[in-house]
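pls design
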């Protein structure tokens, strides 16, 4: 039996690679002769760097950058085996994972460090940049990132405005004279699974700002600031980014990537599957096992499982999903190509207990599933 093992991470519990390893052990305990291909997956946000470097091959590049609060940290990005494609995970420089709960503040957090990663990739001769923009701690419209690449965001007195989304209302004009000209000769692909506009009720601030530490009053300020920021960009770059789908991704970083770097937004999971060459393996598979920490209605909209299910359906390959928690109406996943969904919890348990025992629960749950499949195969 030829089985593809392609899970996403179980967030705050196990990485995608760790989940894949435990799924494999669960299968081996029952079907030691099965042919297994581990292909850990990300939907384009956190984890994209590890997934693509492990899946395609390449090297990690260490860089000192500024974190969201402008502190110096050691970060890294990847360059694939072609030596021309950089993989940048925004969360490694500008992510929530870098801040303590009490440090979250979308008024002051900056994407400057992400720009530093991009600049280093240019210095290394990269001609294509794939950037995953999930998990950001920022709401600065990507202004910090663009500053790191040479632009100046100036107030009416010609002085640099402070970092962070809270200062965008001070912006008078953008000095483009120092912008890194190498940007014009590279391809920028943005892995993004949201289509939010920059501002408004469904915009960057109002939808995602609270998880970055913003109060309702602060989110309203940030939303107005981004609206003003978009008007300045429209005036100076002749680009209207305000309502572009995906402009609101990562606190408006999507807008900056499109406006200043001609970035092309692609559905994260589709980009990952294409880069990994998943379809060539799917054609030979008898079964796909995937999963993530929680399955809910959002899983239907461009997430890992929906992308894998759609591809598997095209090749008539059954898809089994394992998860830690099922929430809401998920029947639409079956229409996309999912065959069955299993929770690994084997009894009522507290979250901390489920996190602690997740490796065992995955192995046990997958083993039980494979025993059922094996019984039907041998009858």
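designed seq:
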């Amino acid at each position: 039996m030829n089985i593809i093992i392609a899970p996403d991470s179980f967030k705050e519990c196990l990485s995608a690679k760790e989940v894949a390893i435990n799924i494999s052990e669960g299968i081996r305990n029952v079907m030691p002769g099965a042919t297994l291909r581990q292909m850990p997956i990300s939907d384009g946000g956190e984890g994209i760097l590890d997934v693509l470097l492990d899946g395609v091959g390449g090297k990690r590049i260490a860089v000192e950058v500024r974190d969201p609060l402008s502190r110096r940290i050691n970060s890294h990005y990847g360059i694939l085996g072609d030596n021309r494609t950089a993989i940048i995970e925004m969360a490694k420089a500008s992510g929530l994972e870098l801040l303590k709960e009490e440090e979250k503040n979308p008024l002051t957090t900056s994407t400057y460090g992400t720009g530093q990663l991009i600049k280093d990739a240019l210095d290394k001769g990269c001609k294509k940049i794939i950037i995953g923009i999930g998990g950001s701690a920022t709401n600065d419209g990507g202004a910090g990132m663009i500053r790191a690449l040479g632009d100046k965001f100036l107030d009416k007195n010609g002085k640099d405005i402070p970092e962070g989304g809270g200062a965008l209302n001070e912006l008078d004009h953008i000095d483009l004279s120092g912008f890194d000209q190498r940007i014009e000769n590279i391809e920028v692909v943005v892995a993004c699974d949201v289509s939010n506009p920059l501002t408004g009720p469904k915009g960057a601030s109002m939808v995602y700002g609270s998880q970055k530490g913003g109060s309702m009053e602060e989110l309203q300020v940030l939303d107005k600031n981004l609206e003003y920021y978009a008007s300045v960009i429209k005036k100076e770059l002749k680009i209207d980014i305000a309502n572009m789908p995906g402009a609101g991704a990562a606190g408006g970083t999507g807008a900056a990537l499109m406006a200043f770097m001609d970035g092309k937004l692609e559905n994260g999971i589709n980009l990952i599957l294409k880069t990994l060459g998943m379809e060539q393996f799917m054609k030979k598979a008898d079964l796909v096992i995937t999963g993530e920490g929680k399955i809910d209605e959002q899983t239907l909209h461009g997430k890992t499982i929906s992308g894998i299910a759609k591809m598997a359906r095209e090749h008539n390959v059954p898809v089994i999903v394992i998860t830690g928690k099922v929430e809401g109406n998920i029947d639409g996943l079956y229409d996309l190509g999912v065959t069955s969904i299993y929770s690994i919890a084997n009894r009522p348990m507290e979250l901390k207990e489920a996190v602690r025992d997740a490796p065992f629960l995955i192995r046990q749950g997958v083993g039980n599933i494979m025993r059922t499949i094996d019984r039907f195969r041998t009858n």
